[in-house]
Amino acid sequence: MGEKLALGLDLGGTNVTGALATADGKIAAITRRKTNAARGSGPVIEDMAEMVEQLISSKGISRDDVIGLGVGAPGPLSHRDGIVFKMANLPGWTNVRLRRALLERTGLPTILDNDANVAAFGEFWMGAGKGVRQMVALTLGTGIGSGVIIEGEILRGHFENAAELGHLIVQAGGRQCSCGQRGCLEQYASAANLARHCVELIREGRESSLASILEKDGELGAREVVDAAKAGDALAAEVWDEACYYLAIGCINVQHAFNPQMLVLSGGMSKAGDFLLARVRRYAREQGWKLCDDQPEISISVLGDDAGVLGAAGMAWAARNSGVFG
Fold it and tell me: Own/partner pairs for 294-298, CB < 8 Å, 24+ apart?
């Protein structure tokens, strides 16, 4: 028998990533493939099972050397029951028993959790939060995903929907959110809404160097907005500054709710690095309370796109070490 390894799968609307990881968090093998989500849940699950076999074969190891499988998937879902209730970006996923399906197809003990929780666990286990016991992660992408770690454990809540921090209300009566609320954090500080807000202002007649890109391509991305802001475009800088301001407000709310040691920012917007971090830290200091100094360290993700798959493998190791996998 060789070295024991854990398997992780990170299911997304665009790609599925799979990896084998050692007990000390080193990735032994990794693979990615397109999700092709329009096919529905059955074919995607078959692809996930095939990835498991591919990874095991690629290392030339015995199935007995794999301690289990951790899976991260978009929610809402039940970690406890292993069921995906629905997925916004993957059609045909309604009350899918994903954990049982993968257990039956792979023969490996399997654990399922929300993709944001899994990514947060990756950063906690082997990323920016390594060595920290209390940590919150915010993923700034299409929306804002999040995960909360308390004393080394994922916070899930009674209804298993804890830490939906993208839906903290930061502007009462503000912009309409797809969740049904108004003024959610993700409407002001996610990558997708950063670009969307810029497009709205240009179409209202505001001048910007981005107008020519919008006219040519019909859309803008967050990266283009950030690049324009760095280059001195006034409109892009205004929109970027507003996003950083509201993200700081969100961080202050997280501070008061959970009092973590560290707050990790990941996802597309985090790739702006110090251009994001410096502003968010400054606004958090300016807007935060002055009764005591308990502001968490605000940091950028270390693992980047691998946080989810490594976190999934890490959850498999945690399940094995706690006796969940026997």
Answer: 294/255, 294/259, 295/255, 296/136, 296/251, 296/254, 296/255, 296/259, 296/260, 296/261, 296/262, 296/263, 297/261, 297/262, 297/263, 298/251, 298/262, 298/263, 298/265
